[in-house]
Amino acid sequence: QVQLVESGGGLVQAGGSLRLSCVASGSIFSVNVMGWYRQAPGKQRELVATMTNGGSANYADSVKGRFTISRDNVQNMVYLQMNSLKAEDTAKYYCNLRVLADTFWGQGTQVTVSS
């Protein structure tokens, strides 16, 4: 059973920074993709950033240049450094792990950016 646990959300002023962390536990195949998605009230869940175990990253256009994803393959952790936060970044952020045909989600962590 794979579990994902996020941390690091909170309330921040526009222009500020936050760092999200996610740790995966359980039986995890080494070839995988970890990343972050977000969902604002009344909107669909959307991709923020993902990274393969080989280090290849993919970002949503809306966060390019402001957010940086990184991961620690030994610790099965993924991070999201968020800088220059905007009010429109306010959402619940979910950690995601894709392994072969399986997808796992964390419970989410709230990020609120005040303008």
Distance between the termini: 40 Å
Oligomer: single chain
User: Biggest sheet: strands, sense, closure?
Assistant: 7 strands, mixed
- Give the strand content: over 45%
Number of helical regions = 0
Structural class: mainly beta
Helix fraction, binned, reads: under 10%
Question: Taking all residues together, what is the mean pLDDT?
Answer: 96
Overall spatial form: globular
Rg of Cα set:
13 Å
Low-confidence stretches: none
What's the total number of strands?
A: 11
What does this structure look like?
The protein is an all-beta fold. It is built from no helices and eleven strands. The strands form two sheets. Strands 2, 4, 5, 6, 9, 10 and 11 form a seven-stranded mixed beta sheet that branches. It has a four-stranded antiparallel beta sheet with strand order 1-3-8-7, with no helix packed on it. 31% of the residues are buried. The model has no long low-confidence stretch (mean pLDDT 96).
